[in-house]
Structure formats: structure tokens, C-alpha cells
């Protein structure tokens, strides 16, 4: 396939602007994925034979969406995802945070796994409705509020909700459609208790607590785990000794003045005495309210299989009499020194503590997104260092491709003018695209998509991404830019394969709709303060520092280009731009963590 250079550059400009819009308008991602995949298949060498196009998306026919196979913890095997609704709408419920403290990196592995699942579904054109709960009433919350003497428990929970959403933004996580709070769904929980009681699946004890009668629920404790129910230790802290069976779990905990608070207690006079819900009930109630009796996917950490998810199944199916969830996905632990990270073990690291710099946050995202979600993940300095190096390599290639296309765009006008002056109507790049001819991009994209369809095999998907990075590096090293210093039509230099490089960059951005790594991480408050202080100190140390307004626009443009060159690790270009700035009578002083300071030279 041979594309005109003019068309290629036009496509690059159009695509670049559209991908920026995607990061802002997350809710319409799935529709754009379909349109974009269709266009890139046509433009960059994708198969045109219907027999070789089985995994491509036909936007006009929802039923043609490729089938994703996922490991279902319930069946203990990989199964094809079969959405309940015929129009490929997928309902997904995931367990959210308990908002009494900062979430740790182990928690955020789960939230990134949910993000991965949703991004893959959107990538292939599925319409996802995602619900993630916020637990804002719990033993831990009450204890923390009492310890820190909060007058209103909501002040504590809202504080850590805000921190949670800030961390999601820093990690570039697509937001769920609903984040229901437990405290705002007490009525739904009470309704479920009474429904269970009407079916002899719940009972009230003398102190006013309510428990689920596990002995009356056939198959309890056998859905997600293979345990001997008689050996299960399920009595949780604060549960009544009045319950009938040790395996029964709390649906409602009666108010105890010595430990409970008035601002986290409710009652339904004549039916349910003053108290608060148990841990498991909120998820059943909220999943039912927002997604219906049966959902397609339920996600959570592997540690939630029992008792939490088993108890959800018992509650929900006890009320509805139908299957609660068709596919259960569980992500693996994050380990430190070969031990599960957990607050109870005291070896946890908050995201803010483990990733103090914005670049660390982005590296953690890539570390998680390039790993197999269901396997344990070791959080080590070496693993984080490797993730950072991978991102540097990817960023450098993308910056070099963009620079090459931008520079060729400037010279293209001159080339086209020369052709016009020679009465040559053709403005087509006559060189064949080796990258396109070799089928580099279609092969990588096919491998990438097959990896996603096979239980979200992100190590294989990452290998496909780096096969494109390697091809781009090889081409960038081999060739010279079309916008070379020579303007002779008979120049013997072999130009860069711009069409091929454009196809690689486009494919990488397509892949990034799953990886989610091409974004600017918001600076932390500490980083912003450091940046401002460093810039102020640098200006104070410069005796002849000129106000920004006195620096000519021509110089500032060069300064900006130099900054971009440094970010792309193009040191030769950065040095050249510094020299040009000096020739214009100015000096650039770099500031660690801040913008460069521009001053007039002394001479």
C-alpha cells in the first residue's frame, strides 16, 4: 500500500487531535473505538479478505463483536463472555474502597484491573455499565472516627473519598458509571433483609441483630471456593454470640452504645431495630438496584472470594432465586518480600507513599497493566525501574515520530510547490513503505487483539506493543527525514518511511486505549510546591534576570522546542537549540522540577 505523504500527515494531525479529545470524553470511548478500528484497518494494511477478518469489528452489526474468553472463578475455567442482553451491553459490578484511609497499591491493583477489563470491553465495541461501591459505614470507619474524634463521621469518609478519586485520576482510571455509597442505600438493604426473612434465610437475634441462615441455603460456601463449611471460621469481630450457627454471617448489627455512633445508625420502626448493615449486604443491594438481578461480570481481589463474594451470592440468590453473576473475575495480590500486601500485616504502602513523583504513578500503572491480572505481582524497586525504562523508551519513539512528521510537514509545502512549478500534478510519495509492505502493523495488532481476547493476556499484549516500538526504532535509526537539508529532487538519501511510522504511531495510540499510558499525570501538591519554590529560587539567584515579557517571542518558541527535545531525550537537537538561543543574545538556565529561566546574556 502506498499513501500520499499529504494524506498521511493529514491523518496524523486529525488522529492526534481526536486522541486528545478521548482522554477528556471518556464516556463515548466505545463508539470511537469502533469507528477508528474500521478506518485504521483500511489505511494501514489490514486484511481486506473477509476470510481473514474474523476478529475485526463491524460497527453496523453488534452481534459480530469478537468473543472474549475470561477465567471464571466460579467454573474455574476460561469461558466465553456471553452478555445477558442481546445488544452487547455488559453489566459489571466491582468492589470499591472502604473510605477511612488512603488506599494502598494493593487496592489500586484491583481498581486498575477493573479499568483493564472495561477498556478491553470498550476496545472491542461492548457497551459497559460499571458500578463500583463506596463503603462508608464499617467497623474500621467507626473506630477511626472515634480515635480521631470526628464530630461527624461523614467528614472522615468524604475526605478519603476525595483522596480516592484524586488517586484514580492520577492513575488515568476510567470512572465507573455509578459510585453508590452504602449509607445512601440503607432502605434497599433493609428490604433485602425482610425478603430473606420471608424465605427463612434470615433471622433476628434477641439484641436486634440479623443474620443469614447459612444452613437453609443449599450450596452455601461452594460457589467460588472449595472449603469444608464445618471448618470455616466466619464469626467476625462484634458479631453476636446469639446467632444459630457459627457460619451464619451478619446482615444487620444491633446498635451498641459503647462502640457505635448515632450518625452511623438507622432503624425501621416495628421491623428492624436500630443498628447498621453488615459488610456483605451493601454489595448485593446496590448491584441489584443498578444492574438488576443477574449481572455479567463481578470483579474483586482474590482475597474477597470468601467470605465476601460467597456471602453476596447467598444473599442475592436467596432473594431473587436466580443466578447472581455469570462471570467472577479475581485479581492477584501485590506482594512485598513475597508476602501479600495488607494493612493487617502492616506491610502496606499507600499509592502516595510508594509513588511520590508523578512519573512513579504512571510507571505503577504500566507495571500493573502489562502483567497478568490474575497472578501475584511483586512490587519491587527493580520492577518499578523496569516499568519506568519501558515508558521512557515508548515516549522517546512517539516523540521522534511526531517530530519527523512535523518537520516533513514544513518541507512538504516546498516540495509540492517545486512539483507545481515543474507542472507535475503528482504530490504522491513515490517510495514504497517497507513497514506497510512487511505487514508489521497488522501482524502486531492481530497478536495484540488475540492476547486481549484470551483472558486479557497483557504480557503478550505488551510484547506486541514493543514489537512496534522495535520496528520504529529500527526505521528511525536507518533513515533520514524527508525534510532534509537538500532540496534536490534527485537527492540520493533514503527518506524515513513516514507512512510506515505514522501507521506505527497510530497503532500504538490504538493500543493505548487499553494500556492508558499516554497521559500527563497531575502533579502532587508537594511537587507543585517544589516546582514553584525552585523557580523562585532560580530567579532570585539571577542578578540580571529579565521579566518574561522582555523575552522575544522568537526566543520563547526556541525555548519551548528545546524543552520538548529534552523530554524526548534528543540531546543533539536540544544543544543545537541552546546555541541558536545564545546567538540571539539569551541564556537558558534549567531548573530542577520547574520551567527553564531565560535571561539576557552578559555580552
TrEMBL record:
The residue ranges flagged as biased composition, category Low complexity, are 410-419
Organism of derivation = Nitzschia inconspicua
List the Gene Ontology MF annotations in alphabetical order.
ATP binding; cysteine-tRNA ligase activity; metal ion binding
Give the residue range of the signal peptide. Answer: 1-21
UniProt xrefs under SMART domains: DALR_2
Q: Which CDD domains match?
A: CysRS_core
Q: Where is the Cysteinyl-tRNA synthetase class Ia DALR domain?
A: 447-526
Q: Where is the composition biased (Polar residues)?
A: 49-66, 420-429
GO biological process terms, semicolon-separated? cysteinyl-tRNA aminoacylation
Q: Which family does it belong to?
A: Belongs to the class-I aminoacyl-tRNA synthetase family.
Q: Does the record bear Signal in its keywords?
A: yes
Cofactor(s), names only, from the UniProt record: Zn(2+)
Protein name from the UniProt record: Cysteine--tRNA ligase
EC annotation from Swiss-Prot or TrEMBL: 6.1.1.16
A GO cellular component entry from the record: cytoplasm
State the source organism's domain of life.
Eukaryota
Q: What class of enzyme is it?
A: ligase
Q: Where in the cell is it found?
A: Cytoplasm
For region Disordered, the annotated ranges are: 44-66, 405-436
Amino acid at each position: 500500500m502506498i499513501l500520499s505523504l499529504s494524506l498521511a500527515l493529514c491523518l496524523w494531525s486529525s488522529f492526534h487531535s481526536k486522541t486528545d479529545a478521548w482522554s477528556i470524553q471518556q464516556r463515548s470511548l466505545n463508539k470511537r473505538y469502533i469507528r477508528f478500528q474500521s478506518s485504521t484497518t483500511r489505511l494501514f494494511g489490514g486484511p481486506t479478505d473477509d476470510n481473514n477478518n474474523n476478529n475485526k469489528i463491524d460497527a453496523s452489526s453488534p452481534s459480530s463483536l469478537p468473543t472474549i474468553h475470561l477465567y471464571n472463578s466460579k467454573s474455574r475455567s476460561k469461558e466465553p463472555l456471553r452478555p445477558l442482553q442481546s445488544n452487547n451491553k455488559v453489566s459489571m459490578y466491582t468492589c470499591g474502597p472502604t473510605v477511612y484511609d488512603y488506599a494502598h497499591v494493593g487496592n489500586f491493583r484491583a481498581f486498575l484491573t477493573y479499568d483493564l477489563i472495561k477498556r478491553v470491553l470498550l476496545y472491542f465495541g461492548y457497551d459497559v455499565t460499571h458500578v463500583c461501591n463506596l463503603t462508608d459505614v464499617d467497623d474500621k470507619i467507626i473506630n477511626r472516627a472515634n480515635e480521631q474524634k470526628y464530630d461527624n463521621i461523614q467528614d472522615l469518609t468524604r475526605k478519603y473519598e476525595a483522596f480516592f478519586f484524586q488517586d484514580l485520576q492520577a492513575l488515568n482510571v476510567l470512572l465507573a458509571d455509578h459510585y453508590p455509597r452504602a449509607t445512601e442505600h440503607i432502605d434497599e438493604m433493609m428490604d433485602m433483609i425482610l425478603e430473606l426473612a420471608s424465605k427463612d434465610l434470615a433471622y433476628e437475634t434477641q439484641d436486634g441483630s440479623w443474620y443469614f441462615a447459612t444452613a437453609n441455603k443449599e450450596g452455601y460456601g461452594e460457589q467460588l471456593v472449595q472449603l469444608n463449611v464445618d471448618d470455616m471460621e466466619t464469626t467476625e469481630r462484634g458479631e453476636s454470640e446469639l446467632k444459630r450457627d457459627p457460619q451464619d454471617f451478619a446482615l444487620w448489627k444491633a446498635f451498641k452504645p459503647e462502640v457505635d455512633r448515632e450518625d452511623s445508625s438507622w432503624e425501621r420502626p416495628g421491623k428492624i431495630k436500630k443498628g447498621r448493615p453488615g459488610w456483605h449486604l451493601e454489595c448485593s443491594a446496590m448491584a441489584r438496584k443498578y444492574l438488576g438481578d443477574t449481572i455479567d461480570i463481578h470483579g474483586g481481589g482474590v482475597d474477597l472470594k470468601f467470605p465476601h463474594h460467597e456471602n453476596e451470592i447467598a444473599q442475592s440468590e436467596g432473594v431473587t432465586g436466580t443466578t447472581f453473576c455469570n462471570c467472577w473475575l479475581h485479581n492477584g495480590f501485590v506482594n512485598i518480600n513475597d508476602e501479600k500486601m495488607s494493612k493487617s500485616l502492616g506491610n502496606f504502602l499507600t499509592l502516595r507513599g510508594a509513588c511520590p513523583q508523578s512519573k512513579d504513578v504512571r510507571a505503577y500503572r504500566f507495571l500493573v497493566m502489562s502483567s497478568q491480572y490474575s497472578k501475584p505481582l511483586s512490587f519491587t524497586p527493580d520492577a518499578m525501574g523496569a516499568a519506568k525504562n519501558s515508558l521512557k523508551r515508548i515516549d522517546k519513539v512517539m516523540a521522534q515520530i511526531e517530530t519527523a512528521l512535523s518537520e516533513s510537514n514544513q518541507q512538504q509545502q516546498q516540495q509540492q510547490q517545486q512539483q507545481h512549478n515543474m507542472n507535475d500534478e503528482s504530490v504522491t510519495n513515490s517510495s514504497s513503505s517497507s513497514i506497510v509492505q512487511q505487514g508489521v502493523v497488522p501482524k502486531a495488532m492481530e497478536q495484540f487483539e488475540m492476547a486481549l481476547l484470551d483472558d486479557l493476556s497483557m504480557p503478550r499484549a505488551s510484547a506486541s506493543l514493543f514489537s512496534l516500538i522495535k520496528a520504529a526504532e529500527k526505521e528511525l535509526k536507518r533513515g533520514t527525514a524527508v525534510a532534509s537539508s537538500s532540496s534536490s529532487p534527485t537527492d540520493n538519501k533514503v527518506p524515513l518511511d513516514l507512512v510506515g511510522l505514522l501507521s506505527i504511531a497510530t497503532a500504538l495510540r490504538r493500543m493505548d486505549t487499553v494500556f492508558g499510558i499516554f497521559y500527563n499525570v497531575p502533579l502532587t501538591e508537594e511537587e507543585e510546591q517544589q516546582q514553584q519554590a525552585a523557580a523562585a529560587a532560580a530567579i532570585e539567584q539571577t542578578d540580571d534576570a529579565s521579566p518574561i515579557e522582555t523575552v522575544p517571542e522568537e526566543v520563547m518558541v526556541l525555548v519551548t522546542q528545546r524543552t520538548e527535545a529534552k523530554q524526548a531525550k534528543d540531546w543533539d537537537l536540544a544543544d543545537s537549540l541552546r546555541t541558536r538561543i545564545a546567538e540571539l543574545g539569551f541564556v537558558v538556565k534549567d531548573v530542577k522540577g520547574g520551567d527553564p529561566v531565560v535571561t539576557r546574556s552578559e555580552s
